[in-house]
Amino acid sequence: MDNPLLTIITVTFQAEKYLGRTLKSVEKTLSQVKETALLEYLIIDGGSKDQTLMIANSYKHFVSKVLSETDKGLYDAMNKGLKLASGKYVWFLNAGDEVYDEETLQRLLYSLETGAGVYYSDAMMVRENGDEVGLRSQFTPHTLPTNLRWQDFALGMKVCHQAFIARRDIAPLYEYQNLSADIDWEIECLKRAEKVQFLPFILCRYLLGGLSVKNHRRSLTDRYKVLKKHFGLLPTLFNHARIFWRGYWFAKKNGKYW
Q: Whole-model pTM?
């Protein structure tokens, strides 16, 4: 059989509370997919001791592979997923995140036929109880351009990682010790992509409260390192002043957004 068109990768560790909602959303949207062979689904687990693996194994009718072993953190596990993936494109959905609706995957697979290097869209931000907070492009200062360039990341994470899909042959490994490695990864993918395509539909429901939020101070330091790498020292210092000023006024007008 030919390689699949898309590999979805979910990284887990002690994720019994959240994994089911992710897998149920994939199962639901798969019911609308005409050629399920186009999809590969990988679960990369960090050696969970709770019910995570039992939940994963109960979805073996579409989960292609479950790998469970100790790792060096989230981005190390994501690197394992990249190395195992056989799809032309890769899409990361964390445990707790969901495919947006029943039509999403079929629409995405159809869109991938255009052969772009990167596809991106918006993300619906949700709380743990499932309540929708709003689209990321409206709920945060990160407005979403319809012609995305890597330079748009000068002020930080322009596109939610779970709403960003890259062709595997241009996707680098993550700098697994950096909590803002997702920003670096997206920038590198955009630099390597000969064509970037905006998707006019929402890709995912993003569960608030990720790793960078829980380690906010270190995440800010690591973000500075990433932006300095791509934009240089002086522009990054200037842009961080803009980031804090923009965040202050956005929060003052709209309330806390993270």
A: 0.90
